[in-house]
Amino acid sequence: MRSLEEKALRLLGGVVETDTLRLYLRLLGVDGCSVEEAADFFGGADQVDALIHAGMAHVRQQTEHAPPRLVPVPMDVVLQHTLVGLARQALADYEKLLGGYQRMGALAAAAGPKGDAPVGQLARLITDSDEVSRLTSTLRGTVQREWLTLSNHTPTEPIEASGVTATPSPVDRGARCRAIYDGDLLEDAAVRDKLEAIAETGVQVRIIPRIRMSLGLADEGVALLPLTSSETAGVLLVQSSVIVGALWEYFDLLWERAIPFGGGGIAENDLPEIQIRILRLQVQGLADETIAERVELSLTTVRRHIKALRENLGIKTRFQLGVVAVQKGLVD
């Protein structure tokens, strides 16, 4: 449990309010408590409300065998929720800052010409698509150690805009490149081909279900956060070491759970026809009982075939089985 709390501190420390994080760690340490006891456990109902409002806890409804419980939200979801709030706040603050500088500029113009003073910003909103392209190209061209990509939309070629030349992959300069994509993208054969092509360039590609955000990270120092699913709508350039460090921890957390994509392996003609039929039904999300009815076999026999499939493909979970099956062309 101590290691779990330490991971939460690394991931959320400095990003989540200290008092709220302390409450979250306490709830995380006991893996939840009954709603009836929550106020006493935290020293007041306001503390419970603060946790729920911050998106760090939720009430699990009563079941036949258990009363309602206040349970911790997974730390990766907490980080996503917090970062969305920070991005919105940063956007609001940026608009205020921009308005203030415009007024200062008007005052300076009225008083006479003056030199511009450099202003360092830890977060900057960029809405011009060409500027986003140039920035992305510059970052890719200067990465020395590692370039990370987390994406829930279809991968594209290196962004090009008028006057911008696509830069070579950081892999060509010896940098490590890791990319995680949303598993739902594999439903499109064209996307699977793109991911294969990306993997062949030396980028380490992995798949995970239900990615809720996209980001790019360069050398642990810079983060690019699209404000919407469309990069042309704007990105947030973040250079705060605290926020970038938390994003790096978040990426590594997902990386541990993600499934490697790319490379050769077993072919369809290496498997018995009945296992191919079972595999195709399982990829559709059908329960084992339903699959048994469809193929007219006992539930025990179907599960024995599923176990054999996992052993042959070298994977452990149902999601992994589906990803590898689609990737290797074992199903349509």
From TrEMBL:
Gene3D superfamilies in the cross-refs: Winged helix-like DNA-binding domain superfamily/Winged helix DNA-binding domain
Annotated ranges, domain HTH luxR-type: 268-325
Name of the protein in question: Helix-turn-helix transcriptional regulator
